[in-house]
Amino acid sequence: MNDLHRLPSLNALKAFVAVAEQGSISMAAQQLHVTHGAVSRQIKLLEEELNTSLLEKQGRGIKLTDAGQQLYQNCQPAFRTIAESCQQLRQQQQEKPLVLACSGSLLARWLIPRLPPLQQALPDLPLQLVTSADDERPQQQADLSLSFMNNPVADELLIPLEQERIGPVLATALAQQLDLDSNKAIPQLPLLHTLSRPQAWPDWARHNGIPPDSLHMGQGFPHLSYLLEAVLAGLGIGIAPEQLIRADLEQGRLLAPWGFVSTDAWLCVQIHNISQRQRIEKLTGLLATLS
Amino acid sequence: MNDLHRLPSLNALKAFVAVAEQGSISMAAQQLHVTHGAVSRQIKLLEEELNTSLLEKQGRGIKLTDAGQQLYQNCQPAFRTIAESCQQLRQQQQEKPLVLACSGSLLARWLIPRLPPLQQALPDLPLQLVTSADDERPQQQADLSLSFMNNPVADELLIPLEQERIGPVLATALAQQLDLDSNKAIPQLPLLHTLSRPQAWPDWARHNGIPPDSLHMGQGFPHLSYLLEAVLAGLGIGIAPEQLIRADLEQGRLLAPWGFVSTDAWLCVQIHNISQRQRIEKLTGLLATLS
DNA sequence: TCATTCATGTGAGAAATAATAACAGATGGC
DNA sequence: GCCATCTGTTATTATTTCTCACATGAATGA
């Protein structure tokens, strides 16, 4: 058992080592980002704790006494060891890849398009992506996850990026076959849906003043990514978050003639590994600007 | 230049090392004389500073993570070095003799008689005595000095032991030759005095309602010790602090038929070397009981 | 010599940090 | 299931540390 309780004030000792290194209380204070008074006081405290005078005046400055020399020579390497050890730990943490979990559709249609600017802005951030099925909870071993969450509660570890906006979408080819003159077109068609978001169509219908019961539900898919493939293949009208199909709209593969409505869900980053919080917040801040 | 400012909270690190050593937060808290909550919090802070988790739950207790192991193995020797270095310094300070300066008369007639009980009560206190002439300021290199001081001001570094009481004294042999029936005897005799305390006789006279001018001043001596030798030799009446001649009175060598009066002076211990303050205060506390 | 500059020392009050007490949650033994 | 043990968390209190402002003492240069 080490006699940790017989240690003097370690902050005072740190101040002393700084003074010994700089040969001056004022310089040490500058190095430690405090006033010279604070350092002077700390030295006094340490001297009292050790019952020894460590510094003596010399001209306008100070110099170490013999006891001070001895203390410095013993403690300086110890502090260096500690500083290096901690620095090493931080370094290792920096080099460890940040594991981000998200669904396949979010990965393919939201995150991957943002990767180039991301890697450009944070070239030293090693990012490792893992997918979880849309209906699974984000995996435990990930440092952070990206997902749509209903009514996210305020929480330091939950960072909302943008509100979900959903709407019906269909392939451009399919649209040309149909007579799209109003909302009325919707009920007549087979509505593709996902098992992970069964409320998507009813929610959207309510938002648009359409009785949910009047909808003709068509094929269901296990995940959004399959549904979107089906929509692209012209199998019917799907419903999807605007965020995930923006590129398809811009490139004319899909159409969204009925627009989008905001839901209670938000696209959120969830922090799982608190020790990576700083890096995650840096990453998230950047993602927010890219949204 | 060492990166002292990149060090984490050293108290948190100390707490962590304690936890690593004990393998338990509660035990570490006990060792550090704080509650487990305090230690738990410190560990959390350290983990945040290092962006690393250091502990993980294991059953009801905790165990170190790999990062924690690494940190502990690096820092534990550093803390041991620091603790040992400080302990060594304290030890050296303990073994260094305490240098006490006082006048020859105080040394011979006040301090030396008290040395046996002193050494019995504090056998491990190495005491080195140096004399300074009565009229010199206590020497700078002494850790403390013992002297009579006029009107001592309240000060942490000045410890009054007892008020000075002075009075005329003469050798028993001389007293037998004289007719000592009252204060009236005084003016008729040659009054021995010291150059270091020229006011002693006038002060005493005023306290006793005798006109100072009516005194017959005799031989002067450079220091009290010589004066006392002269008094013992029957050369005349001297004036001296009661404290310094108590033994002579008790053993019948000297008489003080006119009694003693208190003066404004106190026998004081003055602390010169603040770093020895604790030991000096222990010594002084003991001296006060022996007075 | 005297003002000036530079470095340290000191005190009161403000700011930051750490500790406590009390409770919550989790685990393992009975 | 119940109890004892250990860790985590929070609001509050206590302590430490810092700052600011001024004082002191030593070298510097007119």
Automatic annotation (TrEMBL), chains A, B:
Gene Ontology molecular function terms on file: DNA-binding transcription factor activity; sequence-specific DNA binding
Entry-linked Pfam families: HTH_1, LysR_substrate
Domain of life: Bacteria
Ranges where the HTH lysR-type domain occurs: 8-65
Gene3D superfamilies: Periplasmic binding protein-like II, Winged helix-like DNA-binding domain superfamily/Winged helix DNA-binding domain
Coiled coil ranges: none
SUPFAM superfamilies, A to Z: Periplasmic binding protein-like II, Winged helix' DNA-binding domain
Classification via InterPro entries: LysR-type_TF_proteobact-type (IPR058163), LysR_HTH_N (IPR000847), LysR_subst-bd (IPR005119), WH-like_DNA-bd_sf (IPR036388), WH_DNA-bd_sf (IPR036390)
GO biological process, one term: DNA-templated transcription
This protein's UniProt keywords: DNA-binding, Transcription, Transcription regulation
Family matches, as PANTHER family: HTH-TYPE TRANSCRIPTIONAL REGULATOR (PTHR30537), HTH-TYPE TRANSCRIPTIONAL REGULATOR TRPI (PTHR30537:SF74)
Family, as annotated: Belongs to the LysR transcriptional regulatory family.
Protein name: DNA-binding transcriptional LysR family regulator
UniProt source species: Thiopseudomonas denitrificans
Lineage, broadest ranks: Bacteria, Pseudomonadati, Pseudomonadota, Gammaproteobacteria, Pseudomonadales
